[in-house]
Amino acid sequence: MSADNPAGGRVAMITGASAGIGRSLAIKLARDGWQVAVCARREDALRAIAEDHPDIADRVHVYPLDVTDVAESQAVFMAVEEAVGEVDTLILNAGDYDPMPLDDFDPEIFERLMKVNFLGTVNGVGAALPPMRARGRGQVLLTASLSAYRGLPQAAPYGASKAAVLNMAESLRPALAGSGVSLRVINPGFVKTRLTEKNRFHMPQLITPEQAADAIHREIDAAGFEIIFPKRFAWTLKCLRLLPYRLYFALTQRMVQS
Ligand SMILES: NC(=O)c1ccc[n+]([C@@H]2O[C@H](COP(=O)([O-])OP(=O)(O)OC[C@H]3O[C@@H](n4cnc5c(N)ncnc54)[C@H](OP(=O)(O)O)[C@@H]3O)[C@@H](O)[C@H]2O)c1
Asked: Which fold has domain 11-257?
């Protein structure tokens, strides 16, 4: 048991933990002995994690949070540190998605997804970095997406919000070098959750939230900037990033027309 953590074990805080990848990761980390603060808007869904898994009930701590609220994001981070212990790893995973074909262009979708996916992440980073930098330790993992690499058809609002997350992390990481604080990005491919239920197209190499949680868990203490999965799909998208625009648009135009 550490003096900084009354309950013992490492402390993780996960946003967007009431469903999907965040929920599976919370269960995985708690089973691994971590104290896990789970955050999302739906308190009943957060409470269900411990109810459904009595073996980890004493290691799961429920903190309702709307990540779009700056003050609430600060207050919840401080409350977790006070009650559960010094946050070792903060995983900013809360997210929303809607596909948007050109004919349905809607600024409100952009606003909503930017607020949750980008500004919600900014709020978490803003809450955690000052205390982590002051003590010279901690890590923050931001869930972006492989769709952050390049603009994909029907994904303009989502892709732009995730590209903003990735760009922000690339921008901040060098300034944290040597500080003891690590800022990293999780870039998943397709995972079968409420979000991808909205897709009407074939999703290559679709994996389960449990497989996604395993992939994150495997690299939770790695030094690299990115956690990417599934690997084959991720490397395909990395190669697409290298294509010149003429070839890239020839490919994505075919996706729009099919
Ligand atoms: N599924 C995929 O294929 C995929 C691929 C790449 C990246 N991702 C990213 O992975 C992350 C997790 O998504 P998922 O697929 O696991 O989807 P999910 O099952 O729908 O989970 C999304 C989580 O975000 C929470 N959330 C949404 N808005 C929030 C807000 N304003 N404040 C606090 N929490 C909020 C939801 O909880 P409440 O509704 O209770 O608030 C829920 O716990 C997201 O960032 C997503 O963009 C997913």
From this structure: Rossmann fold (3.40.50)
Whole-model pTM? 0.97
**Closest approach atom of ligand 1 to CA 186:** 7
Query: Rounded to 10 degrees, what is the CA torsion of 42, 45, 47, 53?
Result: -160
Query: Confidence class of residue 256 from pLDDT cuts 50, 70 and 90?
Result: confident
Task: For residues 176 and 26, give the distance between their C-alpha atoms in angstroms, rounded to a whole number.
Answer: 26
**Where exactly are the structural domains of the chain?**
11-257
Ligand 1 close to Cβ of residue 93 (< 6 A): yes
Pocket test for ligand 1, best of 24, 49, 96, 197 (most atoms within 8 A of CB): 96
pLDDT tens, position by position, 101-145: 999 999 999 999 999 999 999 999 999 999 999 999 999 999 999
